[in-house]
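[Q] Does anyone have a clean C-alpha cell version of this?
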Amino acid sequence: AHKTILKADAVEAWELEKWHTQRQQDLLQKEAQFKHTKQQELIALQKRIQTGREEQKKQRHQDLERLLQRYQNVKAELEAQQNLERIRMEKLVQSGALTSTYGKKKNTNNMSTNNLQSGQNTANND
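[A] Here you go.
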C-alpha cells in the first residue's frame, strides 16, 4: 500500500510538472502572439502617421502655390492699374489739361506726376 501511495504521489507530481510545463508553454505562446499583434498594430499606426504627414505636406504645398498665384495675380492687376493711371496722367500732362486747368499749380502737378512715375518704377521693381 505504501508503494502504491508513493507511486501515486510520483505520478501526481509528474502530472503536475507536466501541467506547469504545458501552462508555461501556452503562456509563452500567447505572449509571443500578443507581442506580434502589437507590433503589427504599431507598424500600421506608423504607416497612418506617415501617410498623414505626407498628406499634410502636400496640402501645405498646394496652399503655398495658391497663395503665390494669388500674389502674382494681385501684383499684375496693381501694376496694370498703375500703368493705366500713369498713361492717363502723361496724356493729361501732354495735352496741357493740367496746366490750363490749374494754372499756377503746374509745378505741383509735375511733382505729382513724377511721384506717380517713381511709384510705378518702384512697383515694377517688386
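[Q] Thanks! Anything notable?
[A] Confidence is low (pLDDT under 50) at residues 103-109.
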